[in-house]
Amino acid sequence: MQKMTTSDYYKYKSAIQAANDTEDREALRQIQKQLITKYGLDNDDVKQLLKYFRYSV
User: pTM for the whole thing?
Assistant: First the structure.
């Protein structure tokens, strides 16, 4: 799996916050899928980003 760059981390975090603000669960689902596919579930950055999800997807 790839290592997440700081830039990517903040891009994902911003996208998650925007999806939370608009209550867009489909966008959150897509973000979650991308994160897991690209970086895997054992990545600490992915674990942290998933904690920002306001809604279950």
Answer: 0.91
The answer to whether 19 touches 52, Cβ cutoff 8 Å, is no
Task: For residue 43, give every residue at least 6 positions away whose Cβ sits within 8 Å of its Cβ, in sequence order, or none.
Answer: 1, 3, 4
Specify whether the CB–CB gap between 40 and 55 falls below 8 A: no
Tens of pLDDT, residues 11-51: 999 999 999 999 999 999 999 999 999 999 999 999 999 99
Three state DSSP letters for the chain: CCCCCHHHHHHHHHHHHHHHHCCCHHHHHHHHHHHHHHHCCCCHHHHHHHHCCCCCC
